[in-house]
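Pilot study result, target chain (494 residues):
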Amino acid sequence: MVKEVGLGLIIAVVTFLVICGYDLTPLIFLGVLGVGAYFIVRTRGLMTKNFSEQRISPQHEISFADIGGQAGAIRELQEALNFIKNNQAILHLGIRPLKGILLTGPPGTGKTLLAKAAAGFTDAVFISCSGSEFIEMYAGVGAQRVRRLFQAAREATLKQGKNNALIFIDEIDILAGKRGQTSNHLEYDQTLNQLLVEMDGIKVNDKVRILVVAATNRMDLLDPAILRPGRFDRHVKVELPDKQGRLEILKLHTQNKPLADSVSLEEIAKDTFGFSGAHLESLANEAAILAMRENCEVVEQHHFREAIDKVMMGDRLDRHPSPAELRRVSIHETGHAFLSELVRPGSVSTLTIAPRGMALGYMRQTSEDNTYLYTMEYLENQIAVMLAGALAEELFLGDHSTGAVNDFEQAAGLAEQIIGAGMSRLKVVDTKTLPAGLRYRVITEILHGQEKRVKEHLSRAYDTMEIIVNLLLEHEKINGEQLRSYLRRETCFV
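Predicted structure:
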């Protein structure tokens, strides 16, 4: 009622002033400014309020037992969280409270899952957000949101009758990047400063004990102030899983799927080197989808093989290369496969000329068992495999195509790695001060040496490669065992 009366009074006054001949332009301008300011303030308040209220997760449905392939990270994280659980021992021994844990590692390795499991392990209220959600066009909104986030954590913890709260900040490198990098927008620095203040305010005898867990895959971007002791006291590395870790993850993600007796998860784990937990979850899901498309009651091994290709390269494309292009692609991939089997027998998993993603065909290798250090021989062998595709085209067709560009880039990168590791004829050198001309000559020597070696091997196996090329053109895809059965006819593979 009051609003209606006030609105009617304003309209009456404006009408009277217009009749009397007054210029209302200044009043209209001031009115628009006032309304705009009102809505800006109101929007900022609503954004901050909604931001904090929608972050709270009331239940913990994930435990450390539900996370596979991260035994080291879980052990290190549990060790740090025991400080939170044993609060009385902390008080007795005068230990400074653990304020922050930073999870670092590639995307998809389970950092968010670890944070949720940590909340369940400590029986804490879990509040999650992303670093990008703190940055707005309005100055001061980010800092206000940080204050409201910590306040909401304390209020929610008391409301649920608990003592611990866990605030999880994903992609913290956006919020806590190095200060001074964005001189034209100090909103970033103000937000980070507020986060530092809030973390410094955490005390061991607080009624609500708050732990901040953050995740990033770009630790190099973080401001040094956020990394010092007393802020993020523990840095836990969450790396890509090894073969045993991949097997554990596959078992977790296939528990609810009917698998055929012929399915070997150990073989799938071996073929998925470099896959993260997210990739493996997608792999299991795609295999089940393929089984459903074929009206199968169980998921077969070939469904998993097809799913690996789909996760790595993407779905099949509707491209229809000409017969001449298909033959060139078949020759190219056969060259890769031949050299791969020559330098490391049993290394080829799949050979196909079915277009996927940006590739018209590809050769997929099985990984070696968790190799972290590479010798000169290994790097030279990999260069040879990279060059074999283009050199096979030259042997059969007289020239090579643009399909070898990526192979050449990778081969040159491996040659640079040889120089940087002190394994070239230059021995130990500083690659930063190495003259460009000398670097070029040494890289060329390494590549030409392997090129000569590959040509000799390919020319001796011309007839067998011709059989494999035709077989690939006929079936579009062959597996490693089929390939090896033909290669054994060559004396070098006996």
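One observation from the pilot: The chain has a mean pLDDT of 83. A full batch analysis is planned for the follow-on phase.
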